């Protein structure tokens, strides 16, 4: 089956995942994280991509970002990937592939999933049993969003700024979001949408994406579902 084109729409947030090839280590020393973030800042500005959240783990990266052009994310990831592979191979005297061939991405329904996705990304080190709380992990946007330090390339989304009327209020309300767990069904929904590169959102949002992009935003019904009254009616 032919691979569907990647969903890219300007001004719609994307959850992006880049993994090490065969899950190999991609960040071995603190300097590696620093280099990656410096180049993320550079290429995000170069290709007009607003980065809202991130986490760098030893063998993969999560980003939540909004492009202002249709190819902004693809350009950002292409040039960031190339630069970092050259840096890493030279630093560790190695050759060959570092990242998986294709990064994963999914469009995110801001109204219903944006702040959940922020939490999902920044809680990654907790789910991996690396720390007990996201505040303990250095290489994450939680350090900015909860007001421990300023990360210059972070663009605060409207849904974040609307958490309060001033920075202190916003940060306090943001920290409070982490006092409750993300439901297991939501975790699975995020993982599936990202891995399959479908859209993460409600039916209305998916329909809007299909109209704007000209391609499916979710998988076709299977088996009996395809023959159901709802499926047949949708084809009328």
TrEMBL record:
The superkingdom listed in its UniProt entry is Bacteria
| Disordered: region residues | 211-236
Tell me which stretches of the chain form a coiled coil: none
- Compositional bias annotation for Basic and acidic residues: 223-236
Database matches in Pfam families: Y1_Tnp
Q: Tell me the SUPFAM superfamilies matching this sequence.
A: Transposase IS200-like
Domain Transposase IS200-like positions = 9-124
Q: Which InterPro entries match?
A: Transposase_17, Transposase_17_sf
Q: Which PANTHER family match?
A: TRANSPOSASE IS200-LIKE DOMAIN-CONTAINING PROTEIN, TRANSPOSASE, Y1_TNP DOMAIN-CONTAINING
What is the protein name for this chain? Transposase
Lineage in the entry? Bacteria, Pseudomonadati, Pseudomonadota, Gammaproteobacteria, Alteromonadales
